[in-house]
Amino acid sequence: MLGPNGAGKTTSLRMIAGLLRPDAGTIEIFGRDALADPVAAKRLLSWLPDEPMLYDKLTPLEYLEFVAGLWGIGARQAESRAQALLERLELWDHRDERCEGFSRGMKQKAALAGALIHDPRLLILDEPLTGLDAAIARQVKDLLQERARAGCTIILTTHILDVAERLVDRIGIIRAGALIVEGTLDQLRAEAGSEKASLEDVFLSLVAAPGAAD
């Protein structure tokens, strides 16, 4: 989801994740009513905010094993999944270091590993590449693409339009908390009246278009 400010996008994600209750309407996650049966719905998803939230006194391995335990994953399977994720994100060599000494990028990768430890069907990410250097951003993007190919549905918000253009299958544009358009890039190009426009051009055209939500 894209938008000129973050409030509408973040609110939408928080409602999907079950952190905010909508004033009206329904939210259904893979057939589960997120309002009537929130626990069942939350078991299917993970939420990763824009600021990585870790227990700084834990090592990344301890953190992942702790999160896995919250999901009811057995110790042996938790250790195996944690090792696989830390190796994939090049954090295994830092598995015994406390998270408090990590860079922003390392914390972001550890938090992402925590979001993936229970193999969610839906992954919700708020600005997952903010503040990351090019190498770490590439690792995160590659892992997200792998998860998507494996069947995981990923919803992400970003202000980095070229990332959205290269990574996602469908794009939604939010203005002032309202979804003004949603579809594939080709569909958004058709909506904007330009078949070869970049996502940046499409975004600016649609956000500034007469009748767009204020």
Give the amount of beta strand, in percent.
5-15%
Helix content: 40-55%
Mean model confidence by pLDDT: 89
- Looking at how many chains there are and whether they match, the oligomeric state comes to single chain
State the separation between the terminal residues, measured CA to CA. 17 Å
Q: Please summarize the sheet with the most strands.
A: 3 strands, parallel
SSE succession? HEEHEHHHEHEHEEHH
- Outline, from the CA principal axes? globular
Strand runs, count: 7
Strand adjacency order, main sheet:
3-4-5
Structural class: alpha/beta
Output the radius of gyration.
Answer: 18 Å
- Count up the helices: 9
Could you name the ranges where pLDDT drops below 50 across 5 or more consecutive residues? none
Briefly say what this structure is:
By secondary structure, this protein is an alpha/beta fold.
Task: Describe this protein's structure.
By secondary structure, this protein is an alpha/beta fold. The protein is 43% helix and 14% strand. The chain contains nine helices and seven strands, in the order αββαβαααβαβαββαα. It has helices spanning 7-16, 38-42, 60-70, 75-88, 104-116, 134-149, 161-167, 185-192, 199-207, and strands at 28-29, 32-33, 45-48, 122-126, 153-157, 171-175, 178-183. The strands form three sheets. It has a three-stranded parallel sheet with strand order 3-4-5, with helices on both faces. A two-stranded antiparallel sheet has the order 1-2. A two-stranded antiparallel sheet has the order 6-7. α3 packs across α4 and α8 crosses α9 (199-207). The longest helix is centred in the middle third of the chain and has 16 residues, at 134-149. The two termini are 17 Å apart. The mean pLDDT is 89.
